Description:
Mean pLDDT: 97
Radius of gyration: 16 Å
Number of domains: 1
Distance between the termini: 18 Å
Helix content: over 70%
Strand content: under 5%
Structural class: mainly alpha
Shape: elongated
Number of helices: 4
Number of strands: 0
Order of helices and strands: HHHH
Largest sheet: none
Amino acid sequence: xxxxxxxxxxxxxCDSIKDxxxxxxxxxxxxxxxxxxxxxxxxxxxxxxxxxxxxxxxxSKRYRDFINTLITTNV
Length: 75
């Protein structure tokens, strides 16, 4: 995946999740009393459900390499 593909994937994923939640807010599905605390958890859950099966296995080499990169590069 090149840099352009990376940017496109991040933008599309974030836009898709944002659009879905904003639509639910507009439709009144999201409770009006929810503030930043609940909305952050809602966002986290949406992003967690987008994790690929490949990265769900915390024992896989790819997952361990990912964590190591996070730790060593401060991404």
